[in-house]
Amino acid sequence: MKLTKEQIEEIKKLRKEGRKLKDIAEQFNVTGAAIRWHTNEEFKNKFRIYYKKWWGSLSKEKKSEYFQRRKEYQRKYHKDKYTNDPEFRRKQKASSIKSNREWTSKNLNSYEKGSIPKELILDVLTKLKENNK
Questions:
Q1: Which of 4, 32, 48, 60 could form a disulfide with 21 if both were Cys (CB 3.0 to 4.6 A apart)?
Q2: Residue 29, helix vs strand vs coil
Q3: Which residues lie closer than 8 Å to 37 by C-beta, 6 or more apart?
Q4: Residue 117 vs residues 41, 59, 100: alpha-carbon distances, Å
Q5: CB of 25 closer than 8 Å to CB of 32
C-alpha cells in the first residue's frame, strides 16, 4: 500500500510524539520498516547504500532475470487490477487518453515542420476520438 503525503505527515507527527513503530505500522497497515523509512533519514541513507552495493554486485544476467520477473509480476498485477477494479480501469483509460493528447499536441508541431507523416497524426486523432466515445 502506498502512503499518501497526508499519511506520511501524520506518521511523522505520531513518531515525534513518541508512539512506537509497531503501533503506527498497525494503524496504517504497513510494516515497521515503512514507518522507519519515512521518519528516519539515517535508516533511509543506510538502506540506499546497502541497495546500491547489492545491485552493483549482481551480474548482468541476474539483473536481466530480476527485471524479467518484475515485468511479469507487474503485467499480471495490472491485468488483475484492470479486470477486477472498475475505478482503476477508469483511471488507466483517462491516463491513456491524456498521454495520447499530449503526444498528439507535441507532435503536431513536428508535423507542421514536416518531420512526422500526416497519416500518423490523423491515425492518432482517430483513435483518440474512438476512445472518448
A1: 32
A2: coil
A3: 43, 44, 47
A4: 51, 43, 17
A5: yes
Can you tell me the distance from the alpha carbon of 113 to that of 125, in angstroms, rounded to the nearest whole number? Answer: 18
**Residue 44: what residue type?**
K
Name the pTM for this structure.
0.47
> Can you list the alpha helix ranges (DSSP code H) found in 3-116?
5-16, 21-28, 32-39, 41-57, 60-84, 86-112
49's CB contacts (< 8 A; 6+ apart) are none
Q: What is the residue type of 39? A: T
- Domain locations along the chain: 1-57, 59-133
More confident residue, 116 or 130: 130
Instruction: Give, in degrees to the nearest 5, the angle at Cα 84 between 132 and 4.
Output: 85
Buried b (16+ CB within 10 A) or exposed e, 89-118: eeeeeeeeeeebeeebeeeeeeeeeeeeee
Here the cell at position 1 is 500500500
